[in-house]
Amino acid sequence: MSFGESPPVSGGRTDITVRVDSADGMTTVSVAGDLDMTTTPKLQRIVTKALDEGPQTLVLDLDEVSFLGSDGIAVLLRCHQYAGARISFRVVTANPVSLRPMQLTGITDVVPIFATREEALGAG
């Protein structure tokens, strides 16, 4: 099942594109663009909706994120908390633009981070 691509949200430094794909109890949310205070509310709504559908695993792919601000970090934490123990919440990024802020804020100690989508989907 695929939700397709969402229309871009205007107002930030760049637009954000979000794609949601679901299959076999796994949902992948792929994000491209800046995650700042103007774009993160939409991402929060999309990820929350995807989590509400009850996948076994939700993978948030941030490899194409061009900016990760404090609002984006907050969304990651809220989504991880919302998933709780019922859903395995994983983040994908090898992109220093998104990985470095997560390392500096300690998110990498709380949220499972994978270098590739394949690793995240294959993790136990």
TrEMBL record:
Signal sequence interval, chain numbering = none
| Ranges for domain STAS | 16-124
Supply the SUPFAM superfamilies for this chain: SpoIIaa-like
Q: Which residues cross the membrane?
A: none
PROSITE patterns referenced in this protein's UniProt entry, alphabetically: STAS
Q: Return the InterPro entries for the record.
A: Anti-sigma_ant, STAS_dom, STAS_dom_sf
NCBIfam families named in the record: ant_ant_sig (TIGR00377)
The UniProt family comment states:
Belongs to the anti-sigma-factor antagonist family.
Name of the protein: Anti-sigma factor antagonist
